[in-house]
């Protein structure tokens, strides 16, 4: 098994975030539908549809998650965040019925991550949302684990395309474990290999030269 | 929306998930810092107006710009930190001399950091046992002292006096490990 020299900062667990995690930063870039509960003077240019100088109260806009988290206040004097469709009652019923059939990659690639972050906005539906997230994960986990542990030397794109980012990461680590084990079984574990990083650099240099 | 340039920097790194180091995006960094400067100045002006003209209604906008400043700061810090992790990995994968093409992707401060990291690692290794212990060797538990290797590319003269044209050599493991990792030699397992 090739030891990993580069290990990036992992994403946070549940409602938490890791400040330096690239995954968490990208997750927080997702846009949410909101409604302003006060005037934002001199920021009218952020609302593309209007030519006004200020953003009036009651405007419906889409803001990135990081901004919503930063501006949100419990007493709702600043903005109110709408639940994205995927976390609402309608879709929750679908997930509760059979979580395995849903294409979580299409439902926004960060289904679990974004869902966990939505809990910060203290909607009355929070307990149901949290429960659905958990049950969906439990329902799908078995299949992800099985496929990652049994797909050896084959094209895994079909298995992976309907997974969300968290499940993809789990699938990848399952595959790493499988390959390492197979390597060991074949007696190749003691064979010294060129570093993957070095090989990738060389591949990239060649592609840089090609038109 | 603000902070679009900052997220581009993050995406640049995220695309290379295998640990490769892309070129240092000096231009992108400068643009983000410029945006931060603009936001900060606008907030300064508004804060003064809140105090002098009693315009408490400006607070939401001030708060929004402040969130943008924090977001930009987070993105830049994460960008620099992740690059640092990649550069650190280079010492362990490539050894202490980096190829020119990789060095070209690093900014002056990163090169300086790499050389200081090298020094710290070297002095740590020297302090272990008498005379030092090379911990970058034997990444996999060794099965034998000598191993069979095949030469993959021209690396110039090796420090062994082996003038034969035989492409395969039987060499001490410790001499080869670094070169195998760099892809110069190939370990032949029978």
TrEMBL record, chain A:
Record keywords, A-Z: DNA replication, Nucleus
Main localization, broad class: nucleus
Chain ranges of the GINS subunit domain: 93-185
Taxonomic superkingdom: Eukaryota
TM ranges: none
Keyword RNA-binding on entry: no
Subcellular location: Nucleus
GO CC entries: GINS complex
Gene Ontology BP term (one): mitotic DNA replication initiation
Subunit and interaction comment: Component of the GINS complex.
Task of the protein: The GINS complex plays an essential role in the initiation of DNA replication. Required for correct functioning of the GINS complex, a complex that plays an essential role in the initiation of DNA replication, and progression of DNA replication forks. GINS complex is a core component of CDC45-MCM-GINS (CMG) helicase, the molecular machine that unwinds template DNA during replication, and around which the replisome is built.
Designated name of the protein: DNA replication complex GINS protein PSF3
Organism annotation: Monopterus albus (Swamp eel)
């Amino acid at each position: 098994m090739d030891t990993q020299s580069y290990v990036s900062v992992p994403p946070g667990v549940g409602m938490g975030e890791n400040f330096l995690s690239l995954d968490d930063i990208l997750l927080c870039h997702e846009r949410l539908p909101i409604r302003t509960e006060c005037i934002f003077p001199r920021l009218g240019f952020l609302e593309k549809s209007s030519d006004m100088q200020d953003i009036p109260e009651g405007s419906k806009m889409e803001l990135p998650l990081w901004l919503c988290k930063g501006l949100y206040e419990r007493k709702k004097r600043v903005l109110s965040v709408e639940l994205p469709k995927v976390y609402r009652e309608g879709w929750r019923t679908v997930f509760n019925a059979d979580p395995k059939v849903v294409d979580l990659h299409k439902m926004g690639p960060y289904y679990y991550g974004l869902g966990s972050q939505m809990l910060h906005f203290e909607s009355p539906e929070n307990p149901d949302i949290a429960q659905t997230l958990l049950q969906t994960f439990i329902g799908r986990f078995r299949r992800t684990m099985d496929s990652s542990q049994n797909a050896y030397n084959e094209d895994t794109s079909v298995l992976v395309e309907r997974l969300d980012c968290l499940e993809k990461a789990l699938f990848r680590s399952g595959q790493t474990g499988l390959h390492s084990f197979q390597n060991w079984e074949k007696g190749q574990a003691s064979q010294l290999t060129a570093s993957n990083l070095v090989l990738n650099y060389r591949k990239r240099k060649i592609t840089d030269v090609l038109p | 929306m603000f902070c679009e340039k900052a997220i581009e920097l993050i995406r640049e790194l995220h695309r290379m998930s295998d640990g490769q180091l892309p070129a240092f995006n000096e231009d992108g960094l400068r643009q983000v810092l410029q945006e931060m400067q603009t936001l900060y100045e606008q907030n300064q002006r508004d804060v003064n107006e809140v105090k002098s003209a009693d315009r408490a209604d400006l607070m939401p906008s001030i708060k929004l710009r402040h969130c943008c400043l924090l977001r930009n700061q987070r993105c830049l810090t994460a960008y620099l930190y992740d690059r640092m992790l990649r550069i650190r990995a280079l010492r362990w994968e490539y050894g202490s001399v980096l190829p020119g093409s990789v060095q070209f992707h690093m900014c002056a401060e990163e090169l300086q950091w790499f050389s200081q990291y090298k020094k710290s690692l070297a002095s740590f290794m020297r302090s272990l046992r008498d005379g030092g212990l090379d911990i970058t060797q034997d990444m996999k538990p060794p099965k034998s002292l000598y191993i069979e290797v095949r030469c993959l590319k021209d690396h110039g003269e090796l420090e062994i006096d082996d003038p034969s044209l035989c492409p395969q050599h039987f060499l001490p493991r410790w001499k080869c490990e670094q070169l195998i990792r760099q892809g110069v030699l190939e370990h032949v397992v029978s």
